[in-house]
Design a protein that fits this description.
Largest sheet: 5 strands, mixed
Helix content: 25-40%
Oligomer: single chain
Structural class: alpha+beta
Number of strands: 9
Number of helices: 8
Order of helices and strands: HEHEHEEEEEHEEHHHH
Shape: globular
Distance between the termini: 25 Å
Length: about 230
């Protein structure tokens, strides 16, 4: 979803790499007492359950965060066709506190080789804890633009449609350019997105620009004025 974080955005020696599974409070998350056969058989529902559990923990502890990724698209009215994990975003300076909160709830948390996120597991589902979106550190301003929405009956902050779509399109590069995965999202959220702001934020990057042309030809968005086309 993102590129590498700023070297100063998060100190890899702050302790999160050494996190281990804790016993946890069973009233927070039934992580250690749930048998696999008790989980929802439908993968989409399992991902939603994990998103609800982690979101509830973060809310209870007062962390500033926002739901991102395919579950955020679902919260904004998209279809329940979720991808392989749950995505939350938060500020780089909150990384250690978020990791401690989830560890105390009984969830394993670790730092992968990528330096722009942490990873956790809840109810058998992978949870990405992202502190860089669209090649930029997550900011207070971005989180303040999040909307409080119901995620399968649990309310939590969700990235605004404009920020959500920007995070996906800005991630396009020569090594990651899956237009087919983002096209349905753009179609679903097109009436809720400030496309001018997304285009200005992406600037002259060639892969995002190609995707905008693709959207224009498919009549998902209005064509840009000729003087703005490159």
């Amino acid at each position: 979803m993102t590129g590498h974080a700023d070297d100063n955005a998060f100190d890899p020696h702050a302790g999160v790499a050494e996190l281990r599974l804790a016993t946890g409070d069973p009233d927070l998350v039934p992580q250690n007492g749930v048998l696999m056969e008790d989980l929802p058989l439908d993968r989409n529902q399992a991902i939603l359950q994990a998103a609800k559990q982690v979101g509830a923990i973060l809310k209870r502890k007062g962390h500033a965060f926002a739901l991102a990724g395919s579950v955020a698209v679902y919260a904004h009215g998209g279809t329940q066709n979720l991808q392989h994990d749950v995505d939350f975003c938060f500020r780089p300076e909150d990384a250690e506190a978020v990791a401690v909160t989830l560890r105390e709830a009984g969830l394993p948390v670790y730092a992968p080789p990528e330096d722009w996120l942490l990873k956790a597991s809840c109810l058998g589902q992978q949870v990405d804890l992202i502190f860089e979106l669209a090649h930029q550190p997550v900011t207070t301003e971005l989180l303040e633009r999040a909307q409080e929405l119901s995620v399968d009956s649990v309310f939590m902050p969700v990235l605004s449609p404009t920020d959500l779509v920007h995070s996906l399109i800005a991630a396009f590069s020569e090594h990651h350019c899956d237009f087919g995965a983002v096209l349905p999202i753009a179609r679903t959220l097109r009436e809720k997105v400030d496309w001018g702001r997304v285009q200005r934020a992406c600037g002259d990057e060639p892969m995002p620009d190609a995707f905008f042309y693709f959207l224009e030809r498919l009549e998902v968005i209005e064509p840009r004025p000729k003087e703005e086309q490159r």
